[in-house]
Amino acid sequence: MPKKKKSKTNKKTVKRILGYAAAYHNQILLALLFAILYVVLNLTAPVLIGYAIDNAIDAGQVNFERITELLIMTGAAVIASSVFQWLMNLCTNTVAYCTIRDLRRDIYAKFNRVPLKYIDGTPHGDLLSRIINDAESVGDGLLQGISQLFSGLVMIICTLGFMIMINPIIALVVVLITPLSMFVAAFITRLSQKQFRKQSQTQGELSAYIEEYISQQKVVKAFGYEQRSQKAFDEINLRLKECGQKSQFYSSLANPSTRFVNGLVTTAVCIAGALSVINGRMSVGQIATFITYANQYTKPFNEVTGVIPQLQTALAGADRVFALLDQPDQTPDPENAAEPETCSGSLSIRNVNFSYVPDKKLITNFSLDVKPGQRIAIVGPTGCGKTTLINLLMRFYDIDSGTIMLDGQSIYDITRSSLRTKYGMVLQDSWLYNASFFDNIAYGKPDATLDEVREAAKKAYMDRYIERLPDKYDTIITEEGTNLSQGQRQLMCIARVMLCAPPMLILDEATSSIDTRTEIRIQKAFNAMMKGRTSFIVAHRLSTIKEADIILVMKDGNIIEQGSHADLMKKHGFYFDLYNSQFSSSEKKGA
Fold this sequence. Notes:
Layout: H1 3-21, H2 25-54, H3 64-111, H4 116-121, H5 124-166, H6 168-177, H7 179-214, H8 217-222, H9 226-252, H10 254-278, H11 284-306, H12 308-325, E1 347-354, E2 363-370, E3 375-379, H13 386-393, E4 401-406, E5 409-410, H14 416-421, E6 423-426, H15 437-441, H16 450-459, H17 463-467, H18 486-500, E7 504-508, H19 516-530, E8 534-538, E9 550-555, E10 558-563, H20 565-571, H21 574-580, H22 585-590
Parallel strand pairs: 3-8, 3-9, 6-7, 7-8
Antiparallel strand pairs: 1-2, 1-4, 4-5, 9-10
């Protein structure tokens, strides 16, 4: 990236961060006020000390009473200065942490607005790194930046004013030499900037890798992949170490370099001041005060270069955060989008085309009519588009062309939230969260009573197990339900849907992890729940869909056969071969 473009990017990033901080302008103004009081009182002490020195250098003429007064005033100024510094830090902390809270809130809200395609296509560990690590680095940089900006700016202005009052010529020497430190710091900053960006990106890559492999440790161990995963981890970790070392090395040059320049300033002040004292233009106390002010004047430059690594890390993190926030939102619902309260379950799909990747078609010219209360089974080989069809019905993904009508109304004229409440989904991958059994079952109906939750659990054959637990329905389920078997997790998801009792059902391999006896019972419960409800059943075990009104046989995104089980078996087509491939020869005769 050209330097000018990088500079514009940095300015835009800083402007956006400050835009978040501007919401707390009252705290910013207070911090500025406290910074002024802190610096003024801090600079008053050297003046008082200078006066004390001038009252003590003449032999036999030491004014102890005046010196005592000056020392008391100095102590009071130092104490008051410390109090105002603490108040300034309190305000800047409030601004920084509230800003990052708002930034994280917006990131999380963005997760709910971006198309599911972006979430599916981005490593989840990388997304976690942006909302946690990158946002935290922005907060650290903002905290350091505001603190250094306020105290440093006021310090430079005030010390410069005091130095001009004492000796304008020496003050001019200080002003002319000091900017050299900023030129040095700017040069070193450009060297390290690229490495900090690379470090932030690699950190996100490492987080994604760790999240992926820790969550799948059973698979890693089952296939003996430990050493290979360790090798891949070491490779990313090594790259992170290398770019981290380079970024810290380059940035660490800034502070010593500026201190060297500032040392030249102090040397120049001492030489010029000594000559002034010899010529009688300054007193010893004044030169002592001036040297202190010269050090105070250069101190902000040293402090800024000292926090350059944090500021650079903050900018790199902010770039990744804003790159996420700048992702286009999913297509918004129309302003007059409907929110129907009832649903009969009539569906009409006409000439639907869809693909995840533009140049690779999946579903082409797909059409289907579903009457209220019908059971539609969807079968076919892996990758034929079964689950994709479900994603389109729920508007997890939007179709490329065609129409999908629900009760005679386009689903794109209905709000997403209203549309999704019309379906109850039980997926092959069950999801539970770290909460009680009650909360997990009532996830789709938060106002449910205990009796309603218990009745749903009974229908899903989980009530007996829950009642045997010490805390029963108040028992906490660990993250992702790891203290339950896969089958029990699926039963919990089934209970969740049974509690909501939606007008339409989607069962995507809903009983794939359940034992045969329980599956028979669950199938009875499903049959009872599906009465009068339009239902879509995705199944690999074809024995579970014999009772379906319509069986759609999909291949390569198209319906190649449809009809009842008996009709399809008579055709001796693709479904016939698919069905018979799952059974022994004796079962074939029975079919």
